[in-house]
Amino acid sequence: MESHYSSFMKPLSMASLHQLKRWFWILLLANAIYMVAIHFLLQPLTSSEIVHFETARKVSVAETIIQEWKDSGKLNKAVISVYVDFLFILLYTSGLAVGSVFLARLTQHEILGRAGKLFAWLLVIAGLADIVENIALLRSLQNYVQHVNVVLAYDMAATKFSIIILTVLFMIICLIFWGLLFVEPRKGK
Questions:
Q1: Mind listing the pLDDT tens digit for each residue in 20-75?
Q2: Alpha helices in the chain, H assignment, sequence order
Q3: Quick one: which of 74, 9, 6 has its CA closest to 42?
Q4: Whole-angstrom distance, CA of residue 15 vs CA of residue 51
Q5: CA pair distance 116, 101, nearest whole angstrom
Q6: Which pTM does this prediction carry?
Q7: Contact 48/132 with Cβ under 8 angstroms?
Q8: Domain boundaries in the chain?
Q9: Calpha distance 100→110 (Å, rounded)
């Protein structure tokens, strides 16, 4: 386990604050550009329709969604969406991992600094869950709508979304702590 930690986490945890800041803004911009581009690429399919399919949980629901997409000509867009999501996995996990470490380091708080590294690790798990989810979704979209694929996609989506939500909440907490650094010195005056 230590070798995996060394190969992945050390470059991120050893990066200077300036490097983290630069990568944070680059990845934030890259994620924003991706989301705008994918919105136009996948029209008329919406991201909420994809999330609904990811969280179908039951074969009958997944089959209904797929049939609706076939009838409305959206099925090909759904398949494209899953394939391009593999790129997004790299973008969002990297962006959130850098953001967690960067914002945690800004707080100058030791515990939050350690937690930022933990969240970076959790995002690796989220990315792996997303990859497994995409494979299950692709199998369903290729006429293998089976209970195992639908449930696996749901469980992996739940894992991924839970980690992302917790990470975003952590980043908000870091921003609050960082903001308090500017308020506290004024209290003494």
A1: 999 999 999 999 999 999 999 999 999 999 999 999 999 999 999 999 999 999 99
A2: 2-14, 17-42, 47-54, 59-72, 75-106, 110-141, 147-187
A3: 74
A4: 35
A5: 5
A6: 0.88
A7: no
A8: 16-180
A9: 13
